[in-house]
C-alpha cells in the first residue's frame, strides 16, 4: 500500500494502526496516477526544449544577419568616403569603428542570450534524461520515492520564461546629410552611424502657438468662460506661421540628427513664403503664410514617403488689415467703421494679396443714419499700396450707397487667371440685386474697403 498523506509505502497492518485515518491506496494505482502527472510535466518541458532549440537557431541566424548588415553598412561608408579628400580619412575610420562598435555591442547581448539558452538547454536535457532513465530502470517504489524531487525539478524548469527573441534590433544606417560636392570640413561631424532611421508613419507634427495681445486676452477669458473658443483655433490670412515636424524611428524613438528629405504640401488655399529649417536634432521648422481665409491643410513626405500622422488642418480667418487707412477696424478684423466728418475718405486693405486662383468673399454695408455717401468695394494693385492708398491711381472699385436701416450684401469673385472682378449686390430693400464685371491688368491685387461717412460700417460676413 502507499500512504498519500505521509507519502510513504505501508503494509496492510499499518492501515489500521499508524495510518488509520490517512488516505492511501494500492501502489499500482497510485503509481499510475503519479506517472501520468510526471508525464504531463515532462511533455511541457519537451515543448520548452523545442522552443529553446528554435530560439538558438533563430539567434544564430540573426547574428549572421547582423554581420551582413555591418558589412553592407561599412561598404556604404567606404564607397562614400572614398570620394572625399584625404582630410576625411580619419572621420571615415571613426564611422567604421562606430558601425563595428554598435554591432559588437549587439553581438555581446545576443551572445549573452545564447549562453543563457544553451545553459537552459543543457539543464532541460539533463532533467529529461534523468526522468526517462528513472522510468526505464526504476521500480515503482523507487519512482515514488523520487517523485517529489523529480516533480519539483520539472516544475521549476517548466516555469522559466525563456527570452528566445533578439533583445536588440538589426537597424543600422550610414547618414549622409549632403552630397560630396556640398561637403566641407565644417559639416563632416554630421556624419554618423546610428541604429535608427526615420519612419514616416511614426513621425508627427503640430502648429506652433503664436499669441498676440488680443489672443492673450481671449485666453484669459477662456479660463473663466467655457463657451468661448480658444484663441489658437484660427490663423489669420497674410500672417506668417510655423509648425514643427518631429521625426521618430520605427520604435517611436526621437531621432537625434537631421538630414531627412522633407517636402511640405499645403492644399485648400494659396500659401506663400514656405520654408523648411533643419534643426539637426530630428525636428524641422516649416514656415508658411496663408494668403486667404478658409481651411488650409498640411501634408508632408519624408524621404519620398507620405507621413500620415503629420496631416494637419487649420481654419484661416480672413480679416481687414489695419495697416493702411483711417477707418477703425473692430470685431476681430471683420468690421470697419467710417470715422471723421462726412465726406472724409477712409480706406482699409485686406490682410493678404492674390496672384493666382479664383477667390470669393462677401461684405455687408449698413447705414444707421441715412446720410451716407458712396462706399467703395474692390481691389487695388498690390504695388500701389502705400501709406496713403486713397491716392492710388490703379484700383478697381464698385461704388454703392446703402439705404438707411437696410443691409446691402456685396459678393465679390476675383479670378486672377482671367484678371476679372465680378461684383453682385443684394439689397434687403425694394431695389433688388444687380451685377457688374471689371477687367484689370495687375498681376497682384489686394481687396480694399473704403467709405466717406462715419455712419457706414463694412463687415466681412463670408
- The CATH architecture term of the largest domain is Orthogonal Bundle
**Rg of Cα set:** 41 Å
- How confident is the prediction overall: mean pLDDT? 82
Count of individual domains:
3
Compose a concise summary of this entry.
The protein has helices at residues 27-81, 89-137, 140-159, 213-222, and strands at 2-3, 8-9, 24-25, 173-175, 192-194, 204-207, 234-236, 241-246, 262-267, 271-278, 283-290, 294-302, 305-306, 312-317, 328-330, 335-337, 346-349, 358-367, 375-381, 395-400, 407-415, 420-427, 433-439, 445-451, 456-460.
Helices and strands in order:
Blueprint: E1 2-3, E2 8-9, E3 24-25, H1 27-81, H2 89-137, H3 140-159, E4 173-175, E5 192-194, E6 204-207, H4 213-222, E7 234-236, E8 241-246, E9 262-267, E10 271-278, E11 283-290, E12 294-302, E13 305-306, E14 312-317, E15 328-330, E16 335-337, E17 346-349, E18 358-367, E19 375-381, E20 395-400, E21 407-415, E22 420-427, E23 433-439, E24 445-451, E25 456-460
Parallel strand pairs: 7-14
Antiparallel strand pairs: 1-2, 1-3, 4-5, 6-8, 8-11, 9-12, 10-11, 12-13, 12-14, 15-16, 16-25, 17-24, 18-21, 18-25, 19-20, 19-24, 21-22, 22-23
Helix pairs in contact: 1-2, 1-3, 2-3
